[in-house]
Amino acid sequence: MSYRSLAKLLQTVVLFVLILNLPALAAAQGRGRGGGGGAGTGGPPAGTGVDRGLGRSSDASGGRADNGRGNASDRSNGRSDAGLNNARLASEHLKQADNELRDNPGIARTLHVSANALRSQYQRALAANPNLKFGQFVAATRLAQNLGSRFPNITRSAILAGLASGKSIGRTLQDLGLNGHEAKEAKKQAEREIKRGGD
């Protein structure tokens, strides 16, 4: 048998073996990708947000994942738990912001920004302070727009830093140079403008 015939025979055998194994390869590929949403739903996997997969990881690893999370919590003196809680809180606040933006599209217009841009800015602010409520963020933005030209140190970042340290917006405005009456009036004006935009 010539070299060329032998090579052709070998190619045919390899091709035949590949064809026979295609169904098994396809099934393995499907398992590797999670196989969909289960029970023919076609939807996302069970659970949402930060917690999705935490319960499943325990089942799949025979409980080893629970030990791993416990060790992480112990070794970090609870910092990993705090990080998860902060992520959950930020996720909840972001969902509430989405609802507010959907129900009150005028809020973004009042701030002269698109709803998507406002959401992204709020999401970045939540990374620094997961306790920040959307209403506080909107108020800080509007106050900075209203006061920044007369009081250059009154910026959204400065107001958000005051809120992150546990101060109220009024106290923060006073720390940034307004007296008590000015801070109160500035807050009222911003609230009126935001309410008009949200109606």
Describe this structure in words.
With 199 residues, the chain is mostly helical. Helices cover 71% and strands 0% of the residues. The chain starts with a helix and ends with a helix.
Can you give keywords for this protein?
199 residues, 71% helix, mainly alpha
> Based on DSSP secondary structure assignment, what is the total number of beta strands?
0
Can you count the helices? 10
The helix content is over 70%
Provide the low-confidence segments as ranges.
32-44
The rounded Rg comes to 28 Å
Shape: elongated
Secondary-structure element series: HHHHHHHHHH
Largest sheet: none
Estimated structural class: mainly alpha
State the end-to-end CA separation. Answer: 87 Å
| Percentage of residues in strands | under 5%
